[in-house]
């Protein structure tokens, strides 16, 4: 049948990467009542929530913006992704818009 959709193909999945910015500046910290020493924990929690939302929405990928800084958040994100059961793979490659400060996550 010409033009028929493939019944075995899942068209409900999204194919463009959503972008989630994990940055926290001093203003945001004070506005949200987050102590500076708890900022990393807050960012990791936001990362986990973003992953949960993406999986629930059946996304194939999302991009997390973590910036460069000392590399602490980037390393924490990588550690989380290596263990996450819904993460197929991830890339921490240079991106024209975000430089080396982002991670692209692919889901199963």
Summarize the model shown.
The protein has 108 residues and is of the alpha+beta class. The chain is 34% helix and 19% strand.
Characterise the protein shown here.
With 108 residues, the chain is an alpha+beta fold. The chain has a single domain, classed as Ribosomal Protein S8, Chain: A, domain 1. Helix content is 34%, strand content 19%. It is built from 3 helices and 4 strands. It has a 4-stranded mixed β-sheet with strand order 1-2-4-3, covered by helices on one side. The longest helix has 18 residues. The radius of gyration is 16 Å and the shape is globular. The N terminus is likely disordered.
Features:
alpha+beta, disordered N terminus, 108 residues, Ribosomal Protein S8, Chain: A, domain 1, globular, single chain, 4 strands, four-stranded mixed sheet
Figure out the total of helices: 3
In the CATH hierarchy, what is the architecture at level 2? 2-Layer Sandwich
Oligomer: single chain
Number of structurally distinct domains: 1
What is the strand content?
Answer: 15-25%
CATH class descriptor name: Alpha Beta
Separation, N- and C-terminal Cα atoms? 31 Å
Overall structural class, as computed from helix and strand content, comes to alpha+beta
Q: Give the ordered list of helices and strands.
A: EHHEHEE
Number of strands: 4
Low-pLDDT stretches:
1-15
What spatial form do the alpha-carbon principal axes imply? globular
- Give the radius of gyration: 16 Å
Report the biggest beta sheet as strand number plus sense, adding barrel if it closes.
4 strands, mixed
Q: What is the share of helical residues?
A: 25-40%
Mean pLDDT: 84
What fold name goes in the CATH topology slot? Ribosomal Protein S8, Chain: A, domain 1
- How are the strands of the biggest sheet laid out side by side? 1-2-4-3
């Amino acid at each position: 049948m010409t033009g028929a959709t493939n019944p075995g193909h899942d068209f409900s999945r999204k194919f463009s990467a959503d972008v989630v910015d994990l940055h926290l500046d001093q203003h945001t910290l004070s506005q949200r009542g987050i102590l500076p020493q708890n900022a990393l924990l807050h960012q990791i929690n936001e990362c986990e929530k973003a992953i949960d939302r993406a999986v629930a929405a059946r996304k194939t990928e999302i991009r997390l913006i973590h910036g460069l800084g000392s590399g602490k958040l980037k390393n924490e994100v990588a550690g989380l992704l290596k263990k996450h059961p819904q993460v197929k793979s991830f890339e921490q490659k240079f991106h024209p818009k975000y430089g080396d400060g982002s991670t692209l996550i692919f889901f199963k």
